[in-house]
Prior knowledge:
Oligomer: heterotrimer
Number of strands of chain C: 0
Distance between the termini of chain C: 23 Å
CATH superfamily of the largest domain in chain C: MetI-like
Strand order of the largest sheet of chain A: 7-8-9-3-10-11
CATH topology of the largest domain in chain C: MetI-like fold
Amino acid sequence: MSDSDVDAAGSHATGDRRAASPAPDETILELERVSKRFGSESAVDDLSLSVREGEILTLLGPSGCGKTTTLRLVAGLERPDGGEIRLEGESVAGQGRYTAPETRDVGVVFQEFALFPHLTAEENVGFGLQDWSAADREARVDDLFDLVGLEAQRDAYPDELSGGQQQRVALARSLAPEPSILLLDEPFSNLDVDLRVEMREEVRRILKDAGVTAISVTHDQEEALSLSDRVAVMHEGAIEQVGPPERVFQEPESRFVAGFLGHASFLSGYVSDDVVHTAVGEVPVDLINGLSSEYEATRIDVLVRPDDVAARPVGRADGHSTGTDADGEVIYRQYLGPTVLYRVELREGDVVECMHNHTEQLPVGAPVDVEVTADHELAWFPKSAEE
Amino acid sequence: MTDRDGAHRDDVRLPSLARRRFLAGVGTAGLGATAGCLGQYLGDDESDAREGVELFGSMRLPPQSRGGTPMAELPNLSGELSVYSGRHEWLVGDLLSYIEAQYDDFSIVPRYESSQNLANKILTAGDASEADVFYSVNAGALGQLAKDGRTLELADAVLDMVPAAYRASDGGWTGVSGRARTVPYNTEAFDASEIPTDIEAFPQRGAFENEMGWAPGYGSFQAFVTAMRVLRGPQATKAWLEAMLDAGVQRWGNEQLVAQAVANGEISLGFTNHYYVQRVLANDPDAPIATAFTRNDAGAIFNVAGAAVVDTAGDRSLAENFVRHLLSAEAQEYFAVQTFEYPLVPEVEPVGDLPPVDELQPPADLDLTKLSDLEPTLELMRDVGITV
Amino acid sequence: MRTIGLGDRVRDDARPARIGLYLASAAVAAAVLAPLGWLVLGALSVPPTSAVELLTRSTTVQVFLNSAVLVVATTAACVLVGVPLAWLTVRTDLPYRRAWTILVALPLVIPSYVGAFAFVSAFGPRGRLQDLLAPLGVESLPSIYGLRGTVLVLTLYTYPYVFVTARAALKTLDTRLIDAARTLRHDRKAAFRRVVVPHLRPAVAAGGLLSALYVLSDLGTPEFMRFQVFATVIYSASTYSLDLASLLSLQLLGVTVLVLAVESRTRGEERLAGTQGGSHRGDVVRLGRWRWVAPLFPAAVAALALVVPVGVLLWWLVDGGSGLTGVAFDPTYALNSVSVAVAAAALATAAGLPIAYLAARRESPLANLFERISYVGYAVPGVVLGLALIFLTTRTVPALYQTLPILVFAYVVRFLPQAVGSTRASFLSVNPRLPEAARTLGRTSIGAFRRVTLPLVAPGLLGGAALVFLTTMKELPATLLLRPTGFETLVTFLWRAQENYAYGAAAVPALLLLAISAASIVVVLRGEGYDVG
């Protein structure tokens, strides 16, 4: 991912709240040391999280990491085995208390929308408003259809709507009763790929216009980075890092986070004087984010993304002769249309990925030199750090 | 439930065990049911010495002491005889086989169908009919044939065996066995003297309210109502039916169940053919049920199954002698003991406590053939609100 | 996901075979309709004035009301019993769910008249229970006869239809819809009402229809329970008043059509699930402290429906008492039952083949019409069909009246829909590429059918045949009306035993009937892969 993309995602309408966690009076949802087991398996393990009012937070992680379970715990569709959940200051789960979903002020947009097949779009949207007066309900439904832009489909049944339209109806429906928090479970995974990008913008706009706090769950890092104010990366039932998208992307706090967001390659290096000696040359210590002097004379791994490095051809490949001082060899090549991704195996064994413009063509097997071209600080991890 | 002829659907089937006994020598008590039952009766010293029970025990009583003319004293039968039987095969098949087995070169070619069908067949076939003997379950079909002149007058020797009331006055047919309408009653609720002998009295007695049962869908019951209609007229019959309904009479699907209900104490009185009571007693000799009769009215009608020689009979005397065999001691005994019908030969006693046939008082001057005219009776019953 | 089936149009150049199929189907359809045609003719031959009079009599109206009340009450009771049981076994954490599921569906094995028989024997005025309770001073039990008893027995033996269909619907329910409703301010009860009930409605309607049709057609139960309904009156009137019988038959057919129409309306519009995910069985309702009380419900139902009849039958078996004279069981009755049922199963399967094949290929409206016609026998009560065939034979070919061929024909007409349904489903599951491949390898279309399609559909055919076998074994009214004189089957013997109060004699044939019934149900369910989970 290029920096410019991240910047675009970073310029949010509500301004730049870069703090990693909200101030106490802004917190609308708090999970404290929540855990949940299914049988002998631990789905959520000692998880703590605070969500501030009005923000869009995404739980990002691979399947099985416990993000959907966390969502269901917040919604009240599961009960935690340990810890506490507080909504607007009041405890809704844990410590022996449990508030049923129907009385929690939480809305949910399900992964496959779960629209009621026997009701029209309008009836679906009005479903949660059965305690309102008819006039109020009608007004609210009008507002919502306006918000999501689906006036024309009010009388249609769900099986008559396209995927994007269904999603809007699902959104409208869950927003109708004015919940404090809206939970979205993989909201875009059910849509065609080209629709996703468009809907991401749409949904973000709707959420911001409605001013509602939202927690989204996804395994798609592009979606997480573009949709949210903050991203919480989850792994094996716990949160590894939470923060604004740029921070999580550029300053990953663990190898897992680094690898999960975007391609990650690790260059082994040796810190000596003001330089990190790597297989592809020397990288000044200034370029490494936060490398303090106590790591002098240690081995570290530098995180490089494919756009941080470039591969330069060395001589011609004829027969089996390679330049003796080539950094490495192209072992894999993937043509992606506008770009080409190369995987280069370095002499010392590290493998780095390089992203190039499509006009450059390097064949597999070509000896190449690798150059660090990043103009921003690079993240790093101590060699002894585990994945 | 009725069979096609409106007569009782005979439910007795004679299994091979009893058949052998029958063939061996008669006077037989083969209940037709499991031998275990029989043992139960035979071995029971406590059972009261009702004639019926003794009868069942008296397997070895020779025919002569039972009354009637044994087959040995009747003329021999030889040749082939076509018998059209309106009675079911499992009722009379064994009897026919027995008769057949008595003679070396005699064979019967039976045809089993409803009496009405067979009568129609004989009539439509005319001279070409192959039937020699017509054995009908009720008098109606016999009367029909006789009226059309398709029967031959039977010899006096045959006719004399049976009381005049139970054969055609012109000798065209003779009854062979009969069934009497009776009033079974529960002996723990009433005793014999409390049962009226006039059918009209039943709906009037307060003590009988909600204690009576009938089976209006049943053929013999409908014949009884028909008799009332013929004897007393439709108005009186309608009044009687309405009065019975007002008295809370309960309805069953067939008369066997009515008899059983009386024995169970569900009701105290019923209106059934006589043999249903006997069968209840055969099953349980201690059952508190006994048979009462009315006199000289529709409640006492006596309908007969009978035989006639068809005018197209090949060998007339063979046919006639066959009919005589149906009136033999063995055959009459068979009817008495196997099917619990009334033997029409007065010398042969019916089972149980039943009075012999010549002591019954059925209504006089009732043409039995009229009892088959059901449609007006059904109309009457429906008018009154009985579903038929 | 679209199942590949014979619905895909396949270009076929075998015209003669196609025409042959159509002719065969037409012949079967005509054969199915013929008896009804004769019935209508028979009814029309009644002079209009007497017809009106017969139909408007208070007795006829009473019978109509009885039947109507019986159907409504029984169907309602079946829903009240079947749906909660289905919910308990699918959606909750009831202990031993699988065992309960099997137990609760088991009453299908017991013909309702056997149940009626047993109930009268057990709970009647001089029944077993009375005998047991007499020493305790219980004078008399509430009457088992009449409407109450009939509804009880019929409900016990037809609720499994609703149970099975409701279960199937609950299993396809996307539980995320319930979750969604709960996040929209609906508690579980409200969610059930607004989300689950609409989903269940078509299935419950289908199950209720099966139950209602069974009730309208049943002869044995109302007869044994002494309750006058269409079937009992038609049956008894068939012996002495064909006019009344035929008119009432038409009336009964009218009621049947009405029931079908009501079911059609109740089913509502079947909207396929809008969510693409299909079914999702997520959370299970926790019964909490009800967990050990809840099983009492299925236990009570199973006890009444299963334990009472089997217990009573075993008691008769052990306690002896053959009832009245002359009513004894003969093993040939069982042989008769089985042979006639096998014949019916074979013929029904064969007759259903051309219709099912054409219907599966969805070739033309004509093929669909034939299929619809084949379902006629399903809706025509057995007693009406018997009567219709009596008319047909006595007025055209008297030689056939009360003969075995006519009896088997009646079974085929009545149960053809089962064979057609099962066969059609089998054909639909065969990938059309397979016979096509056979054609490219040199087989003619008939050869391809024989060597490829037929072996693949054989299990389904067998399942359908087993179903026809099973229902023929248990059939009562048409058998009583049409059987040749002296031809006794297990079922007619039971009827006779009841008529003669010979309960003891009925034990062996009744148990035999149950055993054969149970065995065939196992075959049928195996074929359909019944999901007990």
